[in-house]
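Incident log, structure service

09:12 report received: a user says their structure output differs between two submissions of the same chain.
09:20 pulled the input from the user's history:
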Amino acid sequence: MSSVRSFAALGVPEKLSAVLQREGIDAPFPIQTATLPDTLAGRDVLGRGRTGSGKTLAFALPLVARLAGHRSQPSRPRGLVLAPTRELVSQIAAVVEPLAAACGLKVTTVYGGVSQSRQVTALRAAADIVIGCPGRLEDLIRQGHLRLDAVEISVLDEADYMADLGFLPAVRRLLDATQRHGQRMLFSATLDNGVDVIVRRYLTDALTHSVDSAATPILPTSHHVLAVDTVEDKNAVIRELASGEGRRLLFTRTKHAAKRLARQLTDAGVPAVD
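09:34 re-ran on a clean worker, output below:
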């Protein structure tokens, strides 16, 4: 548990603290306590911690706070977040969007596998923050729909996973296109497979904060496979697993399925959100 009891004590603006309070986020995680005073001051930071350590909010808060008060030009965002997968891009956007909305900033996501027309429209509408995957971002740059020369703050999330997927050459090209002296934040569990090169090349006088590193022991986890005969049986099992004290996290194959399941559980008396 962090020794700091509030985000306001770390320097988070009141508008953003209010958003967190409405979402039931009261106390900062250790990675947030460690990094926020530096990132809110504009320092480059290397944050080391596993997925689930709270790092998304650790970079989302300074990203929004430092871009607030000004607007971007069409197709020239001022904030850039790079992530390896469309799923992670969507998760990051879900954290950033309510914060950005409180400050009058526009956010858009960019990734492959879908039509780019909506993404191009959002960029032309002067999106302030772009959260995306390297491949589609480079496609849009080549087509003239996106420029990164106005980017003041860059974030590289899951950098080690990005390296595993072979994205670092594209990451370098994208970072080279941003403002040379802009703020940069990099979050990674390890510094393997060339991530250390990115750190040395693009982060200036970076402060390193390691919390819940990859070497932290992982508690044993039990896995069970339940075989059911019918859809009705499956739904009954899901309701049973979802009910009870404490929180539950359920995964579905699609966003539509998640919405449907949340509605079904709520109708069955198990409060759920997607």
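09:41 both user submissions now match this output. Likely a transient worker issue. Closing.
09:42 reviewer note: The beta strands are 45-48, 79-82, 107-110, 129-132, 153-156, 183-188, 207-210. The chain has two domains: 8-210, 231-267.
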